[in-house]
Specification:
By secondary structure, the chain is α+β, with helices and mostly antiparallel strands. The protein has helices at 9-13, 63-75, 90-97, 130-140; strands at residues 20-29, 32-41, 46-53, 80-82, 122-124, 158-162, 165-169. It is elongated and about 60 Å long.
Length: 170
Amino acid sequence: MTRGNPLGAVALLAYLNPRRHIYTAVCSGDGLTLMGQVVQSAGEPFARLTFLAPNELLGAGEVPLLDHLARHAGGWGAPHLLAEVDERSKAFKSLRQAGYAMYAWQRVWKLDISATPAAGDWREAAPRDLVAVQSLYNQIVPALIQPVESLPRQLNGMICRTNGEIQAYV
């Protein structure tokens, strides 16, 4: 989920994007006030849970808030609600208590772009790589997950080729 200030200038300017649904809800009860937000960009078959706050209060009754946010996202036609959460966080435990399931792990690497790559190593993806990247995606991503985490129509990342075959796309 988003780190940083959910009420910062960038977050507030996001509300002006007409191709994006954004909904923020506040849940108060038992002297506690929790807040959460869901976002769906145009054309995406899912919504994303962008934040739950304040972090210190998580674990104290956010299930009704999560249910409310999921219902609202469903009203946009989003049958899936995604959240990228550190599995050691309070938010992860809250989502599990609310009945959400983990379907993938993510490993984040930092690519040193100052180093000169050797032939066959990392380079920017080009339109000619689309078919090979789609093939790699279909081999790696389980069929059950593909409707939720679809491959972008345009490549905007890096690929790694070894012996003429794409080994990775990030």
